[in-house]
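hi! just following up on the protien thing from before. the input was this:
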Amino acid sequence: MLKLILFGLVLSFLIGCGFQLRGIERPEAQSFDSIYIDGSDVDSDIHRILEEKFKRSNVQVSVKSSAAKYTVFIADERNSRRAIAHSSGQIISEFGITQEINFHLVDNKENVLIIEEQVSSERFYTFNDQILDTSFQEERLLREEMQKDIIEQIFRRINASIQEYQNKIE
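and the predicted 3d structure came back as:
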């Protein structure tokens, strides 16, 4: 019984302090109602995930830029992988992977809200050439995590810029 009470207290403290498990997101109230996502690769994971993020936050993702109040341009997406550490036999033992995206934001009157800006995410993982499948799977999972991190960065910057812009014009 004491364990149950203690568990309840710990849980209420965690909820009260704003602790949130990774991967569990709360939809954020947006100060705008429509956006158009433009970029060279509309079939990319970044484009798709960003579109889903806006839709979950009750922002209409327009199919034409003329129908949206704001347009975000995903200008450049780069992925890289480099060797970080070598073992004594000059075999790669650790990799670093990086993902970078450039974007900018304009309103429907071509006012620039965000001049081209770069967001990036970097992760490191241990490479084991004895179990290649596991190492490649770890890299894939890290890349998915990096994409989510980048989407969050872009999403927060867009929202903050639009709120600041709307406060300025009111």
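Residues 41-169 form a domain with the Double Stranded RNA Binding Domain fold (CATH 3.30.160.150).
Strands lie at 34-39, 60-61, 70-86, 92-107, 112-126.
cheers
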